[in-house]
Amino acid sequence: MRTPARVIVMGTAVFVLAVLLSGCDNTAAENPNTPAASAAAGGVTAPVEEIRDLLPADVLDSNLIQVGSREEAPPGTARDSSGKVVGYEVDLMTEISHILGVDFEYSYGDVGALIPGLQANRFQAANGAFGTNAERQEVADFVNYAASPFAYVAVADRELDVSSLDDLCGLTVATANGTQAANVAAQQVQTCADKGLPEMVSSTYANTNENLLALKSGRADIYFTPSVTALTVVASDPTIEIAGVDADLPANSLGVSFLKGSPLPDAFAAAINYIIEDEPDVYAGIFERWDLPQQFLIEHSEVNPSH
């Protein structure tokens, strides 16, 4: 059966809507806007009833959860050569869908529109290499599924050595709009000034591709991002490199977000913990398939983890 796609306009962001039918493999093949889990991703094939029972009655009745996600946040989500959305987050969300026994309907766009989309009730959950922080937890609830240290990406022939925030003083730094990295970079601008260090300039862009374009065009010296993104872009482009990984900054907790007070986080946390504890090979395999180190794995998922 072919799943129709719709386009939703959210402010300046255009979102493509598609349905992930957890029990219908040919849907993804027919509709390029439907996320496509890796062939080896299907570790859980039937709902786990005690976890499904944590869902609210309206979700159980509709058998559907609407999810906002980033279309281009590799390796979490990105379009492959055939135009399908693939990535480790697609694989993980597919497992969660199987455990909960519900379908996920996706809307795609930039990270800056995800929390506003939750607040406007355009979708009930959001993901896309989406990190949690204190500011975001004031308006949204988060359930973590991985942890990613921060990294500094640079053009290879610049031979920059950057391993701490103070090393950014005197440089122009690019980050993705609305992310934890953008918040940290904005704060570091003032820190450089307070310490009497060379001026740092912070610029934000809509997505990974725009940040890389700024880097390669010379508009930015450093692309500051979670290492989950840095590892992927460096692996696919020999002209850029990881100039350093910040060992002092706490790792960025990546997860799924929900409107504050939503009834969904407990069910998602239980589903993720089921994968971690009862299907550890499936959990580790998702990250291994996308060439991510095992340091990204967490031992336990929770609602609103410390950051």
UniProtKB/TrEMBL annotation:
InterPro entries, per database record: Solute-binding_3/MltF_N
Protein name per its UniProtKB record: Polar amino acid transport system substrate-binding protein
Stretches assigned to coiled coil: none
Protein's organism: Compostimonas suwonensis
Stored PANTHER family: ARGININE-BINDING EXTRACELLULAR PROTEIN ARTP, MEMBRANE-BOUND LYTIC MUREIN TRANSGLYCOSYLASE F
Domain Solute-binding protein family 3/N-terminal, first and last residues per copy: 64-294
SUPFAM superfamilies listed in its UniProt record: Periplasmic binding protein-like II
Annotated keywords: Signal
SMART domains hit by this protein: PBPb
Signal peptide: 1-28
Transit peptide listed as a keyword: no
